[in-house]
Predict the structure.
Amino acid sequence: MTNKTHKLMLAFLLLLVSMTAKAEGEVKIGILHSLTGTMAISEISLRDSVLMAVDEINAKGGVLGKKIKPVIVDPASDWDKFAEKAKQLLLTDKVSVVFGCWTSVSRKSVLPVFEKNNGLLFYPVQYEGVECSKNVIYTGATPNQQLIPAAAYMMSKEGGGYKKFYLLGTDYVFPRTANKILKNFLLAKGVPEKNIIEEYTPFHHQDYQTIVAKIKKFAAGGKACVLSTINGDSNVPFYKEFSSQGLTSATCPIMAFSVAEDELRAMDTKFLVGHLAAWNYFQSTKSPENKKFVQAFKKYCKAKKLPGGLKRVTDDPIVWAYTGVYLWAAACEKAKSFDVDKVRPALYGLSFNSPGGKVTMNEKNHHLKKPVLIGSILKDGQFKTVWQSKGLVDPLPWSKYFWNISKGEKQAKACDHVKRGGTYDLK
């Protein structure tokens, strides 16, 4: 062996050692959010908030002495591609956890992948419930933490005493299931079926002229409101057409379940004043923790040269995406492991001082206990809180209003990963 060959082999061995040491000093996580397509308007900011949490945790030494290495993929608002990318993250990239999805159809697409391969997904957006997977941690709201309080508020004297409800949504699993729950709730509270209308439009729908005309006719007699589960960029033309036809929050308020501060950045908010949304966090939440978080997110976006920079806003899904990273990191430290089967039970009962206040993982059903807020849109695209729950609301992923009430009462608390082992057994 020549001296030159010996040196080359030595250099190669040193490189391998260096690469191995580097790999041993990292833990990979997946980020599965649409960066293009109809849902990019909402999901890009979730990627950004996850990355900010990663940078903060890494700056403090990482998790179990390892730095977090994000692996980012773009499923491009294509539901089949979500499953492909999830499989890539788990089997090729071998990530320890995935933070991702927005729509329920994307979550349903990846669910078999995570369950088959025992992966762990943190899902940060409100959803319809009726799911209890051991491989998903749901940091977004359950129906009793958003849908039901919002409808009850609209019916109350404080909320306006509305008696007619137009249920308008994007045509996929969340709006259809949410509206089934809402309709059963309204019927149980004495609202006549003739006073409830359901209608759906496809993703990326842009022409709302005919639908808004129907809403205008429906609202002509007074005491009518819209419960909106429109998702993605379709919200922009819907609110614009609503205003163009002379409808306002005074004549027919919209209560939205998928419009937050981030979506309002793309809208002319002067026409939206007084319309409502139900969430578990608003940027306007007054607390030292939230003030620090809002400033940090804006500075992060500017430092990373992200579109919007210091003008960026925070919102509910952004906060729960961010919170999910910290909950996972704390559970890993508690379990002293990145193994899914050890991390999952370490999450039960875990608390975190989120930007929206202290929240706690339910002790058995993979969901967060947190407050419920209803806000009114202001001219600056922020929300004024007009109603808030007393304390944290315990999550019930299986709403009794999904079934008939008698069966629902029995099934409402059926999601139990401690005594029942999860998952979909309704007996």
